[in-house]
Amino acid sequence: MAFSKVPGKEDLYVGGIFALRKPETFLEKNFTSVLSVIKYSFAGWGEEANRFQHMSIDIDDMDDQDLLVHLSSAVRFIERGLYPPVAPDESTSGQKQRVDIINAGPQSSPGSVYVHCAMGKSRSVSCVVAYLLWKHPHRFGGKQTASSTASTAQRRKSAADAVEKAVKWVREGRPIAEPNPGFMRQLELWWEMGCPVDHDGAVESHPIYQKWLYETKLKEARDLGMAPEADWIRFVDEEAETEKNEPKPEVPEEPKGELRCKKCRRILATSKFVVEHQGTGNKGSSNAPCPHIFIETLSWMRPALEDGALDGRLNCPNAKCGATVGRFAWQGFKCACREWICPAFSLNRGRVDEVDIRRGVLGIRNPPGRNGSL
Ligand SMILES: [Zn+2]
Ligand SMILES: [Zn+2]
């Protein structure tokens, strides 16, 4: 099974490197474009290689490889191959050609594209799935947009469903289709981003991609038992400043409250920087509230993190105060509620005041089970 047709009206094929062993057989298929999701060159094919457009993505079939960053350019390449743009100087004949295509009905695309890797199982299938998710979102649950009002958990679930459906779609034509788990997760992120293809670097500049890349780097550092290098630590409050004009991956939340140093009352975090965990609001639980309030990495922590320590204390940034208000651990730690938070930046509940801005009441917590606690 050298070539497998991807079900649908596009003349889109997926397969392995085996199909390229015999150039004469391959050329019979008259592909107009070939996407190699593997390091591959047609240099030995001479003039014949000019019969199709070629793009090669040099990547291994490993969970931790970053295929995501290539998806915008890969999908754009596939689309250009299937539906070649009409050149301006051919506009007259091009129009005629278009009409012919329309008259030909929905049977096929004007161009034909072969997407391959080594086996035609993981890398190439991932790129085809990315294309289908972008081109035919309605087949897989409808277009996902970053501004969707769904919760993070709901978005992840619908992304997982969409990707699963798209892989099944390809599997109808190629039963061995099976992107590796790392690529599956990346395809979910692709869907969550809304499959951005405005330009080749569309994924790279997307906040969801940047966040994922950062988390990947944190994990690599963690696996090596090291703290991240100071110059690439992301301080979430600083990003909130610089990314005001960028599309927001999360629905902006009304500030509900503040966490202040108990000793000097300096604001340490607003509620939008609180990392939700099961014990955050002690919702509906009769147990005592968690001793930790987890927050994002914020710029006032910079002095504590610059030294490259794996864990340590967090002190109040007010120079006149400097009280210990919590602690951090890049490798994470387990809260009293048994949830593992990683990385962990914790404010000690006993050392901060929780202020509800809306009610203008200081230091009073909502009772358990009520919304609006920090
Ligand atoms: Zn203080
Ligand atoms: Zn907890």
TrEMBL record:
Question: What sort of enzyme, by top EC class, is this?
Answer: hydrolase
Q: Which residues form the Tyrosine specific protein phosphatases domain?
A: 96-175
| Known EC number | 3.1.3.48
Query: SUPFAM superfamilies recorded for this chain?
Result: (Phosphotyrosine protein) phosphatases II
Alphabetized, the UniProt keywords read: Hydrolase, Protein phosphatase
Could you tell me which InterPro entries the record lists for this protein? DUSP12, Prot-tyrosine_phosphatase-like, Tyr_Pase_dom, TYR_PHOSPHATASE_DUAL_dom
An annotated GO cellular component: nucleus
- The active site consists of 117 (phosphocysteine intermediate)
Describe the location of the Tyrosine-protein phosphatase domain by residue ranges: 2-196
Q: Which SMART domains match?
A: DSPc
One annotated GO molecular function:
protein tyrosine phosphatase activity
Q: Which domain of life is it from?
A: Eukaryota
Describe the family membership recorded for this protein in Swiss-Prot or TrEMBL. Belongs to the protein-tyrosine phosphatase family. Non-receptor class dual specificity subfamily.
What is this protein's record name? Answer: protein-tyrosine-phosphatase
Q: Which species is the source of this protein?
A: Pseudomassariella vexata
